């Protein structure tokens, strides 16, 4: 079975679409053509994804215009609701802060990882990848321990603040925890790009009269820039839709969009509103991701 | 005897680009045929169409009397040695060679015996349990070869099989390849851009250029009697100059760009259908003389030495004819004589050594 | 691997040594500043995780740091509590099934994509890769509605199938990039030697993708084992995973037993990762 007939591959002479049009002088085609094995190999996974993934997401999107009645009422409500705008503001602000912080902290690490020997880089990478592989829930829990009343961080800060009251359930707590959780992304992405930069370029700049700082700023950094921007945007996108950490370490006043969505589903049972918010979130996430993909190819996060 | 392989009016287009145009070619059983040409001339495409790795746009391919144009590669029973060998990296040498036999559902003891026999023939016996990455380039090449003929294919195809080897090894493998082919009596279609390889190995050579098969002939004939100036230039050294036919008769009289006077070539050497074409001569057919020879028969061209490069056995002499043509010939160092730059000489050759060809 | 591919790998491995340029005073200061900053960032990355592990050995019933005293009492409590054990096993069961599905779907998808010309492959890629882009809360809602409609809430097989969707992009990218490294002539060679497409895939292509496939599978497992959002919507009462139980406990009673559960999650996921890295390193050493 699964014999791929070479005839199916052949574009008919002088005619790219006319599959059946037997032209004079053209060889008759084999009568029986089975689908190519590769096509089957692709069709089955695609069918699975349509059924198990595209259908649920599509159904959800549909609910935004059909629940409780057909129309764009849900979007109207979402846009006119002050809490939505507040949640949106909080979400965008926090995501932006986290994106900037992770890039600022991640770049030096990526730089060092890209410039030490392969062996050392491998060992240090484990320190980056272990947090990456640790459950988001566990890492959020860690910050509850660290930032809670009488936790390590409030006590370290007590000489300045005067008390040991916790920082939990605040925007700051969410930003700190999210920075910790998303930091591996910029490190791994930027390192991937820095690995490609030829070291001799900086040396060449030095021989041409640039000091170490100027060589870095004028030669090295511009080459790293696309990765820096795209990893920052990736963090921003992930931050927009993040649910676990804001729900656990954030306070009720700083609900993010994801938290509002979950509440609409589980507490107020306003499925239409939840679906409308989720639709908007999805559109923004997809759009920003496409921009990121334009800027650089983000890949290779599965392994070191 | 019917041909083992027949290409009948084969065309291959990629979009609007014609890779192969109307290829008609037969390969006899036991024959070693080489397709020779520069890269992009369509020779590899032709080979891959025979292997079933590319589909022909039109035309037919016959293999051992059977029409295989639409057949999948695994049904064609051809052995193909790939340019980069394409050895299976996760299999040992013996497993690689056994693979085609396993695919043909041969019995286990038969497979073991065949594999041993073939590895013996290719001097790979000691390496049978090694993995491809543990072998040298030449050994990998032999594994690829062993794997391609172990199942007794109707035709053995080789796509630049020596291309990845260094010069010395290539010459050695060339000899090995030829003697192996003679021992197993295989029909071979060989693709290369290396003229030395083509001349040394082939019973017949087909020269390809821009998707068109220019000429198919035994090595001697293709060197001595090329059908056009592309074939002449591609095989061996040549002096090729645009020329115009002035007169026809027992001898053809030519006016050649860059050479003064009239140039005579024998009528049988005039194969050009048009009034304008290319004059061609192999540089080793030139003789260098201090005086003009008396025979009215011979061609003689006045020229000056530009440089002479001493190369040990020979001296490479760069000459410039009075009318501007540059000619480079090699003279045995022993009778080089005075070749000082600027000195005047006569280049002579017989009318039977010059050719008047269709220009390409 | 062909000779050139191998060369490329070796080249990548032999990273040039750090600059041996003479170092000026300014550069020395910069270099030390960089080192301190990077050390601090590493500390920031690792310490919270260490805290969880350390906290699991606390001897009292509430979270403190430094510890009141070292003890294994919370481990006894965790492993003695059938609810925690059941949750752990349920997580493992779901994650294994999800990883298997994701691996099959992602591997065949990657291979089919590589061998299908034109737009079909692009569409398939968008479909199989996009779960990585879609915010999990959006996925969770989609699954919630469908699970509710089909009365699948709490069904562990359905949950595993839903989780497998999140693993597919990782298997897909991992296998796709390995396929790009693979010499396409190998499949052609197998075909000319008499192997049919199916045999070629089974005997030539898949054996060379094993490490990429297992890397993807591992990631799919870890994602499903850790998953903490979708489960909030689709768990029901009989499919409480470790992550779900951990979530409930974090919200309602913070005790060091939670730290034990967290440590179990860390050990399973990070342990799996380290094992595969080790195997990879050993294989590379044996090869060279």
From TrEMBL, chain A:
* Alphabetized UniProt keyword annotations: Cell membrane, Membrane, Transmembrane, Transmembrane helix, Transport
Region of interest (Disordered), ranges: 1-30
Q: Which residues span the membrane?
A: 37-55, 94-114, 126-147, 167-190, 223-244, 271-292
What's its membrane topology? Multi-pass membrane protein
Q: Where in the cell is it found?
A: Cell membrane
Do the record's keywords include Cell membrane?
yes
SUPFAM superfamilies from the UniProt entry: MetI-like
Q: Can you cite an annotated GO cellular component? A: plasma membrane
One Pfam family name is BPD_transp_1
State what protein this is by name: ABC transporter permease
Species, as recorded? Spongiactinospora gelatinilytica
From TrEMBL, chain B:
Tell me the first and last residues of the signal peptide: none
For this UniProt record, give its keywords in alphabetical order, as a comma-separated list: ATP-binding, Nucleotide-binding, Transport
Location of the ABC transporter domain = 5-235
Q: Which GO terms describe its molecular function?
A: ABC-type transporter activity; ATP binding; ATP hydrolysis activity
Matches recorded under InterPro entries: AAA+_ATPase, ABC_SmlMolc_Importer, ABC_transporter-like_ATP-bd, ABC_transporter-like_CS, Mo/tungstate-bd_C_term_dom, P-loop_NTPase, Transp-assoc_OB_typ2
Task: Classify the source by domain of life.
Answer: Bacteria
One GO CC term on file: ATP-binding cassette (ABC) transporter complex
Q: Which PROSITE patterns does the entry mention?
A: ABC_TRANSPORTER_1, ABC_TRANSPORTER_2
State whether keyword Nuclease applies: no
Spell out the protein name for this chain: Spermidine/putrescine ABC transporter ATP-binding protein
Q: Which organism is it from?
A: Spongiactinospora gelatinilytica
Q: What is the lineage of its organism?
A: Bacteria, Bacillati, Actinomycetota, Actinomycetes, Streptosporangiales
UniProtKB/TrEMBL annotation, chain C:
Write down what this protein is called: Polyamine ABC transporter permease
InterPro entries associated with the record:
MetI-like, MetI-like_sf
Gene3D superfamilies annotated for this entry?
A: MetI-like
Q: What keywords does the record list, in alphabetical order?
A: Cell inner membrane, Cell membrane, Membrane, Transmembrane, Transmembrane helix, Transport
Q: Which family does it belong to?
A: Belongs to the binding-protein-dependent transport system permease family.
Q: Which GO terms describe its cellular component?
A: plasma membrane
The record's subcellular location field reads: Cell inner membrane; Cell membrane
Query: What is the source species?
Result: Spongiactinospora gelatinilytica
